[in-house]
Amino acid sequence: MTYARTEPTDQEPDIRARPPLVREFLLVAGLFLAYKFGRRAANGHVEEAFRNAGNVWDLERALHLPGEGAVQGVLLHSQTLIHAANTYYAIVHFPATVLFLVWLYWRRPLHYLWSRRILAVLTGGALVLHLLFPLAPPRMLPAAGLVDTGQVYGPTVYGATPATDTMANQFAAMPSLHVGWAVMVAVGLIVATRSRWRRLWLLHPAITLLVVVGTANHYWLDAIVVVALLAVALAALRLPRAARNVPAHLPWAADGGAVPGGGAHLPAYAVSGAEAAAALYAVGAAHPARTPAGAAHPARTPAGAAHPARTPAGAAHPARTSAGAGAGR
């Protein structure tokens, strides 16, 4: 009889941890609307926003940060490239975050609750900074000498006259939620999945950073500040203990292959300790050295059966079994 699992445990969501869908939709939508109205309330501080922009620009130069123009210069070598960067800035940011939350809600409910709280705290902190520190983006700062790529090459999400833009507050560059949300999407997916390629999700925040700087919508410091805010949120709101128990890879079954000693295939991930030992016993890979009093005696190993080639680190070494013998020495 084979006891190896046919379905990976980290693909089985805990339905009991999934909050009601309608409540979550209303909550997330309410938080987003509160943020949008909060940004609008921070509008109108034009002179202060430009004064702060000059100070941020001077501080970056004092810190010897690379000029934003270096990234924009690379993008401007190709009209296709700069158009792609503008498109990425305009349409990827919000849909990618929504898809991230939807997938977590459906497949990783505990990770969803954690990620939603982190994003809410991060966005709330960003809104406070928008209110306290209005900032004109580098595309508006004459000293930066940068091109407003959205207006020149398109597409753009902003109006041509920032002071009268009724759709968005263009003087809320600090911090960059484009970067903050992108980093959280990558962190959340890396924590919630076990694919060997999961760290490639870091490309999303990396590309986002180059896009927001190269299109002159944000300073380097906008990204640095939002990552610092995210770090504080992650430190304050820890991942629930139940969500941390994501199965780890078995060293001998990295590709879901057969376990040494014969038997059924095990999944590419299985927990260590008692469950791993049970899986080994089930496929006949090892015999326990001792049998607890009153417990069923392990089945005898047929004569000529292959002895396990290796014993996992920290596990008891299987007792030697002679042909037809039922217990170790």
Radius of gyration: 28 Å
Structural class: mainly alpha
Strand share of the residues? under 5%
Q: Span from first to last CA?
A: 26 Å
Q: What is the overall pLDDT average?
A: 77
Question: What is the general shape?
Answer: globular
Question: Uncertain regions: pLDDT < 50 for 5+ in a row?
Answer: 1-10, 247-309, 314-329
Helix/strand order: HHHHHHHHHHHH
Number of strands: 0
- Major β-sheet annotation: none
Brief summary of the model shown:
This protein is an all-alpha fold and 329 residues long. The chain is built from twelve helices and no strands.
Describe the structure in your own words.
The protein is mostly helical. The protein is 49% helix and 0% strand. It has twelve helices and no strands. It has helices spanning 21-41, 46-62, 68-75, 79-91, 93-107, 109-132, 149-153, 177-192, 203-214, 220-236, 241-244, 274-282. Helix 1 runs parallel beside helix 6 (109-132) and helix 4 packs across helix 9. It is globular and about 55 Å long. It starts with 20 loop residues before the first helix and ends in a 47-residue tail after the last helix. The model is unreliable at 1-10, 247-309 and 314-329 (pLDDT under 50).
